[in-house]
Design goal:
The complex is a heterodimer. By secondary structure, chain A is of the alpha+beta class. Chain A has two domains: 203 residues, Cytochrome Bc1 Complex, Chain A, domain 1; 177 residues, Cytochrome Bc1 Complex, Chain A, domain 1. Helix content of chain A is 42%, strand content 18%. In chain A, α12 runs antiparallel to α14. Chain B folds into two domains: 204 residues, Metalloenzyme, LuxS/M16 peptidase-like (Cytochrome Bc1 Complex, Chain A, domain 1, 2-Layer Sandwich), CATH 3.30.830.10; 178 residues, 2-Layer Sandwich (Cytochrome Bc1 Complex, Chain A, domain 1). Chain B has 15 helices and eleven strands. Chain B has a six-stranded mixed β-sheet with strand order 1-2-6-3-5-4, with helices on both faces. A five-stranded mixed β-sheet of chain B has the order 7-11-8-10-9. In chain B, α12 runs antiparallel to α14. The chains are: A alpha+beta, B alpha+beta. At the A-B interface, α2, β5, α4, α10 and α12 of A face α2, α4 and α12 of B.
Chain lengths: 412, 408
Amino acid sequence: MAMIEKLDKHTLKNGMVILGEQMEAVQSVAFGFMLPAGAAMLPDDCCGAANVIADWIFRGAGDKNSRQLSDALDGLGLHRASSISSSHISIGAALEASNLSQALDLHADIIIRPSLDKDQFELARQLAIDGVQALDDDPRQKVMLKLKEQFYPAPLGRSTAGDIEQLSSLTAEQTGQIVKDSFSLSESIFAVAGKYDFDSVCRQLDGLFGTVSARQVEPSVLGLKAEKYQHIPNEGAQVHIGLMTETVKLTDSDYYNARVAMSVLSGGMSARLFTEVREKRGLCYAVGARYHALKETAGIMCYAGTIPENAQETLDVIMREFNRLREGISEDEIERAKAGLKSMLILQSESSSSRAGGIATDYYMLGRVRSLDEIKNRIDATSVDSILRFLQNNEFREFTVVTIGPKQVSVQ
Amino acid sequence: MEFRKKTLTNGLDIVGELNKSAKSVAVGFFIKTGSRDETKQINGASHFLEHMLFKGTERLSAIEVNEAFDRTGAQYNAFTSEENTVFYAAVLPEYFARVTELWIELMRPALRDQDFNIEKNVIKEEIAMYKDLPSFDVVDRCRSLHFDTHPCGNSVLGSEESVEALQANQMRDYFMRRYVPNNMVLACAGNFEWERLCSLAEQTCCGWQRQTVERELQHFTGSKRKEHIKKANLAREHICLMSAGVSAQNERRFAASLLAAIIGDEVGSRYYWQLIDKAIAETAVMQFGAMDGTGAFCSYIRCGSENVPEVLGIINGIFVDLSKAGITKEELIKAKNKMLSALVIKNELPMGRLIDLGFNWIYLKQYRTVDDDINAIKAVTVKDINLLIRHLEPGDFTQFSIGPTQSE
């Protein structure tokens, strides 16, 4: 069965790209603005500013104060979804389709005309600091943030939560300037999926954003990678292990070989990590690896949580499974891995929020949006041979490891 | 959308909602059993049993079960609560029969000693994982404190000690008593063929034996006790508040959900404006959970230890205001709009639809369309909610907190 989805695309005069995907079966619509102001895009010494900004711009915009703006958004029944990545601040929402136009008007105010009131800044900054402190009580999340910091060359892995010292010295002037400099519309992407009329969306966005001038964002200069192993002591019940190693980017011809290989390692419950670590040895409840890509580089991220007595064995088994992958994979394993990837693709395509996110990310990473059929065909085109060849040419050599817990591990 | 229903002679209910325009289908078993149905001696058995169902049957090993699921590309899992155990899978329509057959087969597991012993370690790891998540731990402990002697206070995971002491034959006995056809619902939503579902179920499930099943069902308003424990390795104070709610069978459950949103939705609620907006607390949310014969409001608040007295003072003020002046019309409109759009969005996915379809059957033996729920939400008035506040007194709560300092 061919999957036919129509991609809408339009570019505003200032360079902002508008993407859309119609979905027949839904009454909702989801949209998102990807603004090039992610953690790695900010000036040095203000780690966490993106988090402050994502809160601050909602504290009043256009002719509305914080309360009026919030009431207006809630009045539309809108489900807000902001997130910070290495590259972007993403601001979006899902809502009933009939309220889209009003929601876009409010978002134009939030993005182009935030009030950036000084008193409100202090509150947004305090909440960002509190958020970093709360990570100490969530070691599982903290270990993955630390892992990215260790693994990616600076500033790509910079914490999306922030740094307490840098947040403490951040000023409203400095942060206001970042909003002016970084909310560059020429490099922003707008994506919408679900039920909408593309012509009227474009006309409206052209009126709201089209005349706002564009600025170029400077690419960051990459620094060195941090050391290979970091341990953070914590008197908790488990050792939380994060492990990461390099792999190919989304633009690489071996990308689909890498994705299917990852799925053999940690796709479903019959994948290698789950089988060897949990099913056969009972070492962990949570163990899994996933592909994590930035535009500049990509990695495989793995997490496992286990009681201190089992930590070393867990790490050893995981590393052995990474290295054993290139020694051989069965046809049946590849078939299961492919079935899992293809079905996930289609199941996610039923959600307007995941489609809006998917097309925007594709455009940022590739400069175009892949159709579901293209992805499906490329997954199908991989084979035991192509995957083993890829793994043999791209051995997992270096592992970056971070642990949080009462006991250290030794990393070869 | 078309609703279909069939009951086998042994009492197994099969319910389906067909949507030919969906790209996928979700299918699952809902079993009316959870930690409230356990005695202290076997606390944790329902959740442990949920894990054990994946360990295979007389015919299939655990690894073969995992492989069989993964061959269908299914997104599948299970969860256990105080009163239900749910097994679910979302697949493409061409794999519907295969994945349904698999669930049916797994409902009669082998429960082997060897699998039981390995899985015990996994369960102990899961208990350890949640110990390191105070935001979860505090809710679990507050529930126990709130429900006190009522069985809804039983921990879903059990304790390390209760799980350690649990024997395979105790679990087999529990299984025999609870996984009986008249205590289970087979539900399906999305793009599938109803006749196929029925024939698959009839082939195998007809052999399952009906048996009398009981559950203690008294309502409980809560212990209203307050406790705090110190954990030196924590950075923040985690506070949980619980108070009496209405049951899943009570039509005022929609009003109760709206009240929880007015008090403690993530944005735009009373908690939000008085605690989060002012950066006095970092998180403050309230949810309403309707249960079998009872119900509870549950708040979770996270803040710095130095702010605890101020936070509790503000929360007290919110409840005093509510009991004196009630809610406003504007608050209700906003809460309704948010709840209605969340409902629509969730039900666009067969997986979201399956959960509502299954639980409506478990609690009400009733099919409710999305529109039925939309209309019920729209019909709630300011007066309904103000009466609910007067009747339930949400300010009279049980409180449990965990944090780095001695006093709360």
